[in-house]
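User: Structure please.
Assistant: Input sequence and predicted structure:
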Amino acid sequence: MKHSTWLALSMACLISLFGCESNQPPAQNQSSDTTDPKAQIETFAADLHKHIAVLASDDFEGRAPATAGEEKTVNYLAAEFGKLGLIPGNNDSWFQQVPVVSASLTASPEMTIESQEPMILKAGVDVMLWSKREQERVVLEASEMVFVGYGIVAPEYQWDDYAGVDVKGKTVVVLVNDPGYATQDPALFNGNAMTYYGRWTYKYEEAARQGAAAVLIVHETGAAGYPWEVVSGSWSGDQISLASESKGAERVAVEGWITQAKAETLFAQAGLDLKALEQQASSRSFKAQSLAAKASVTLSLALRYSESRNVLALIPGHKRSDEVVVYMAHWDHLGQKPGDDGQDHTFNGAVDNATGTSALLGLAKSFMAVEDQLQRSILFVAVTAEESGLLGSAYYSEHPVFKSYKTVGGINMDAMNVNGPTKDVVVIGYGSSEMEGLLKTAADKQQRQLVREPTPEKGYFYRSDHFNLSKIGVPVLYAKGGLENREHGHSYGAAQAADYGSHRYHKPGDEYDPSWNLLGAAEDMQLYYDVGYALAVGDFFPKWFDTSEFNAARSAAIAACKAAKEQRCPN
């Protein structure tokens, strides 16, 4: 569940970016003197068509981790990187082993609610239920249900939804997103822009810290950023997690979502009004409410342990090879799942994310053409299990090949534009780092304008793999073509994005179309190339802006660099 559509881009404001000019390289170092941008863009487009057609083919079985589709995918990528002349990026290996556990429900669970009138919640229709505990049988029995608002504990905002309530062993019901979005108050959290406290992953993490037995997130399409069908589709079939020595004991027993309609019924039976409580939950004075109900469910799981793989390919730098620029994209998608007709359907994931994965190969090819100019190393990382919660990038960030303080910057590519060139470039998480200044310089060359992310309330910055690099302090860039189509205008771009979001995103319909106009994606690749080239031939380190929540992580990394007595550390 990530950024794939820009349905409200018409509300976006064109912006000028003000970076730290003194920390940028000279203008002539922004791109290679030997590279013809027009020819390079045409080559990028051709390479995208070539690789997407392969990676999104039925033969690759939807590229699910720990399947035959993974074998074909990672071997294809390693072989293609090798043909281009890159070397294995994990010492002498193309692969970084990522220990995972694949779990599948052996029966469709029903949750029983003991309340004024007993309720039975059916999986897929009323709830989606899972467990990240590595157990074959997980039982939740007569667990008291409590509404804890947004389920947030944030001392910096003087916010604690769990204050005064003991939820140990209980089932907490929480709202998605955060109070800033709900109130549109710019002084509350980050206003309309979602913070990490609004993400569903945080809700489960905090509930576990509080000792809860289960969590049900109330689904609302606007606040979540996607319809119920995305939840039911993404949470069905095999689910992949990072395997842990604790067997997931630190997680809540049951993680789940509940539809808004069923949540309203549940609250009404307790004599409560969900809408009224949502308003109360947007205040610091909110107090948790008992739902006068108990939840029970048994999850039967089949577990299979394996190792998935990140694919790492390296172009070593000639002067400061221990410093690295990282390009990242996830190679995985949803695999094959049974449909209503009883047949297995292939979720090919052509846009999401055969496009970004193919872009890694196209960029590697272009950088090899100027390999002799590169002072720093460039690492291409095709990560696994993004669709299962950014797992491959999380593992890489926990076990980086290059120290975080030696990682100059990261560029992430996910669900690229397939509808032709655009006049605009959308910056997700705008206002984060000096990487944006480099992007503006590159965009100016294409006579393109940077625009703010139109729907920051959906928290797209936290929903793709660059986020894990951010958490260890690495300045990152996540940007892509917008909706202002150069040939057909904004309405065409908006219609194409809406159609993809409704009919193909995380559905079997996300298939490769040879008629796609990939020149737009290729122009975006040229931007990524220019930014990476500037970093690879330069000697400066981009910084997070002062307002970024990742400044502390970068400061800690710099302190570690100095403690290690490295010759060069970021400023």
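The chain has a mean pLDDT of 91.
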